[in-house]
From TrEMBL:
It comes from Streptomyces griseus subsp. griseus (strain JCM 4626 / CBS 651.72 / NBRC 13350 / KCC S-0626 / ISP 5235). Signal peptide: none annotated. The lineage of its organism: Bacteria, Bacillati, Actinomycetota, Actinomycetes, Kitasatosporales. It comes from the Bacteria. Residues 63-152 form the SCP2 domain. This is SCP2 domain-containing protein.
Length: 157
């Protein structure tokens, strides 16, 4: 943020052009907020914008050399004000992200709240710790889920 904060976190973030925010800056913003603040931010149109931008960047942050010949469909279910579902399909060294739930059977499904999702994708949350404390639930291939972070360039705050 630019120091002209109005004191209202949601208004401050709503004014951000997320497309122009570098992944490292996004990671710093997430790191600076408590889980309660992250949950407060993830409401309404702002939540839609944030999720859209995060999932929109996955394709660019995908590391095909790390994925090799991996073929997998990963379903993300982010719980909060409402359930948001996205799917990441990895095949032939490419990554495709689509909103919504397809009829295809995912190899793994990740379920987490808004704050946990933001911490995970910004490099501010440890997926193993989140899993062990049940803040991240995994259905299907747990091994694939545990290695997902190596297939993407995750920013560091």
């Amino acid at each position: 943020m630019d120091g002209t904060s109005s004191g209202n976190l949601t208004d401050d973030l709503a004014g951000l052009d997320f497309a122009a925010v570098a992944p490292e800056e996004f990671a710093r913003i997430v790191k600076s907020l408590s889980a309660k603040q992250l949950t407060e931010v993830m409401r309404g149109e702002l939540r839609t914008r944030i999720l859209g931008e995060v999932f929109g960047r996955m394709k660019q942050q995908f590391r095909p050399e790390a994925a090799g010949g991996l073929t997998a469909l990963i379903r993300w279910k982010i719980t909060g004000e409402s359930d948001a579902v996205y799917e990441t399909a990895i095949a032939a060294g490419a990554c495709r992200v689509t909103p919504g739930r397809s009829d295809a059977e995912p190899r793994t499904t990740l379920v987490m709240g808004d704050a946990e999702f933001l911490k995970l994708v910004s490099g501010n949350g440890n997926p193993v710790t989140m899993f062990m404390t049940r803040k991240l639930k995994v259905a299907g291939d747990v091994g694939l889920a545990s290695g997902l972070t190596r297939y993407f360039d995750i920013p560091k705050a």
